[in-house]
What does this fold into?
Amino acid sequence: MKNKVTDKANDLKRQYDSIALSGDDKTTACDYQLRELEIDNGLNFIHDGDTILDVGCGPGVALQEYATKRKVKAFGIDYSENMVAFAKSRIAEVEPTAQIDFRCASVDDLPFEDESFDVVTSHRCLMALLDWDRQQKALLEIKRVLKPGGVYVMMEGTFDGLERLNAYRRKFNLTEIEADGQDRLHTLKFHEQQLADFCVDHFELIHTQRFGMYYFLTRIVQPLLVAPDAPKYDHPLNEIAKQIAKLVPDFDEIGHLVGFSWRKPVDSNANKQSV
Ligand SMILES: C[S@@+](CC[C@H](N)C(=O)[O-])C[C@H]1O[C@@H](n2cnc3c(N)ncnc32)[C@H](O)[C@@H]1O
It folds into this structure.
């Protein structure tokens, strides 16, 4: 079982190394309109003067927005050297004045001192760990580098949100979306209750951002509208869906991507379980 996970993880790393060479920043977020909604959510927690870190930063699209919309000291890590090289060259070209420190590292072994960051963000990175043990290790590593009172804005997929979306799709005779990475790449989503049970000892949940309206319009309405053609991420409806979702974000908590904002307690021993 562990070997299978390791093989899949190695395959995934190779895929990211190769994707990075495409020079296309949408390859790490096919649903690039959704990434914009994720970034809006991240921005709500980032303030001028903050030191921030984006883990699994890919080509640095989110960091570019964070570092230009806020006066921050920005860091990005990605385990793919090619991805880090892509992020550096991309930012030098599109936002040469942005000062972003990109480094090659894994999210479960961060090359930073304890309590370095006001905000850590992830946009679909911990799902790539493919293993709940490693995901827990990464959550603890993120907690380690957060300052007391700092916030981790975790934008990752959940099985629960996907199942709620699939329940709607079944009502409309649409095929179910597979849980392990219908977006080409193999991933391991989170079980919301399991995540909450783990995090309760380490963080305080301060906000949950759902994107249900965007999912409803793009994963239910669009497929019905364009059938028998296949839905497309660049369909004009997705742009409209994004605009609607900015005003009315949720629809029955459907959709796999969820933004959980976790605050590290000021006294981080406060909610450690006694053993
Ligand atoms: C789905 S992509 C998202 C990239 C970027 N956040 C975005 O929204 O465009 C996942 C990213 O996480 C990176 N990644 C996967 N596993 C990682 C790990 N263990 N440590 C650091 N980065 C990782 C991949 O190389 C890839 O760039």
Notes: The two ends are 30 Å apart (CA to CA). Residues 16, 28-29, 35, 55-58, 61-62, 77-80, 83, 106-107, 123-125, 128-129 surround S-adenosylmethionine (CB under 6 Å). The mean pLDDT is 94. The CA atoms of residues 59 and 86 lie 6 Å apart.
